[in-house]
Amino acid sequence: MPAILYLFSLANLVLGTGAYVLTGILQPLATSLHVSVAAAGQVMTAYALSTAFLAPLILLATGRWPRKRVILLAMGLFASGSALCALADSLTVLLLGRALMGAGTVFTAVVAGVAVAIVTPERRGKALALTFLGMSLSYALGVPLGAWLGFTYGWQVPIWVVAGACVAVAALLAVSLPARIGAPGAGFAGFGAAARQWFILRVWLRTLLYFVAIFSVFAYAGPVLLALNPLTPAQLSLTLVLFGLSGVAGTAIGGLSADRFGAARTIRLQLVVLASMMVLVPFTQGHAVLTALVFMVWGLAGFGMMSPQQVMLATRVPAQAALLMSLNSSMLYGGTALGAIVSGALVDTLGFARLSWVGLPFALLALATLWFDRHVHRHVVPAL
User: Fold this and answer.
1) Is residue 159 part of a domain?
2) What count of Cα atoms within 13 Å lies in the side-chain half-sphere of residue 114?
């Protein structure tokens, strides 16, 4: 794999940590800002909505820019938003900072487009898996470490660490990336025809649905785990580490499986596993080891879906890969926002321990979209 992909993975480790670290420390955050945990959980909603709407607009506005310049702009936006969050003394300011961080996630679409452009078609699954590996590692390393720092030293500390890491990685990218990277920018030429394809719309819908399912729980990861079992900060961090490590494995397996067996087959199995784990979660209450095992299997399936989904888009219309994948990320974060909103509205009724049942219907609907792909195991790659 090209060395540039390892840099992208490192950057995604930082961005993934910044995106999700607050989900593990919502309780001290809520106490500090004098709001409810459900209200604090909307930090994911603000971030998700910004990513869904602002990131594609920035991608289009910078379509003629050199890719390196867009990448550095994205890192700057994310670092600035992180700093604003760390300085926030109210929920309003915190949400504004999260929105700025969301705008910086244009980075993800840009580097995904670069990844598929610089490798041969049969290696796209592996290239995307490597690019997104850092996002999975953020759960294994960044989020648990951030939870420990947040509970021990205050919720602002991990956010400051993310801001500093953004600056450091941006400097590394500025030095290491070539001035010109051979990948197309986003534009509207040919986009309308691509976006009207039922196949493309189906991929986007599936991403939206399964992220509603996932984030009906993970928008409140810390409170959910604590409701299932009384955990010390160290035990909570360890559980998040195990979940994150399973996500790393899932990302790698998902990319390899998409290349070997086809994206549709891979996603079908992953959604069946995900839905099964969502059923089981509440029944693990009082059994910490069993809870950890269920969440590890959940992570294996959940993280593994992103690469096959992106492969479907990249192989269908390679010339529009960057914009199609950016809009797929919009669906991802739209699902994240909806998951947080739906579960936040129902948490008083069901309790944190049963939140996974809120997302189960969405996982089953995502699985149903694959009925149309039941005969598709590999997609023909159009000529570039």
Assistant:
1) yes
2) 29
pLDDT digits (tens, 9 = 90+) for 178-200: 888 766 555 555 566 666 788 88
Instruction: Give the per-residue pLDDT at 186.
Output: 55
Task: Give the integer Cα–Cα distance in Å for 206 and 267.
Answer: 10
- For 236-251, the pLDDT digits (tens) are 878 888 887 888 888 8
Q: How high is the pLDDT of residue 166?
A: 96
Q: Which residues in the chain land under pLDDT 70? A: 182-195, 317-322, 374-384
pLDDT given at position 187: 57
Domain count, the chain: 1
d(CA 77, CA 79): 6
The DSSP-derived string for 47-114 is HHHHHHHHHHHHHHHTTTS-HHHHHHHHHHHHHHHHHHHHH-SSHHHHHHHHHHHHHTTHHHHHHHHH
Q: What length does the chain have?
A: 384
- What's the token pair of residue 30? 């809520």
How far apart, in whole angstroms, are the C-alpha atoms of residue 175 and residue 22? 31
Nearest Cα neighbor of 7 from 79, 80, 76, 68 is 68
Give 281's DSSP letter: G
Q: What is the pLDDT of residue 189?
A: 55
C-alpha 244/C-alpha 141 separation (Å) is 7
Residue 303: its pLDDT value, please? 79
- Residue 378, domain member (yes or no): no
Q: Cβ contacts of residue 76 below 8 Å, gap of 6+? A: 104, 170
- CB count within 10 Å of CB 167 equals 18
pLDDT for res 248: 82
Query: Rounded to whole angstroms, how far apart are CA atoms 147 and 270?
Result: 28
* CB neighbourhood size of 368 (10 A): 12
User: Is residue 164, in this structure, part of any structural domain at all?
Assistant: yes
For residue 360, what are its two tokens? 């189960």
Domain that holds residue 199: 4-373
Q: Can you tell me the distance from the alpha carbon of 267 to that of 151, in angstroms, rounded to the nearest whole number?
A: 36
Q: Could you give the CA distance from residue 224 to residue 229 in angstroms, rounded to a whole number?
A: 9
CATH of residue 207's domain is 1.20.1250.20
Any domain includes 318? yes
Question: Cα–Cα distance between 285 and 86 in angstroms, integer?
Answer: 34
**How far is the C-alpha of 251 from the C-alpha of 16, rounded, in Å?**
14
Instruction: Name residue, tokens 């969301």.
Output: 102
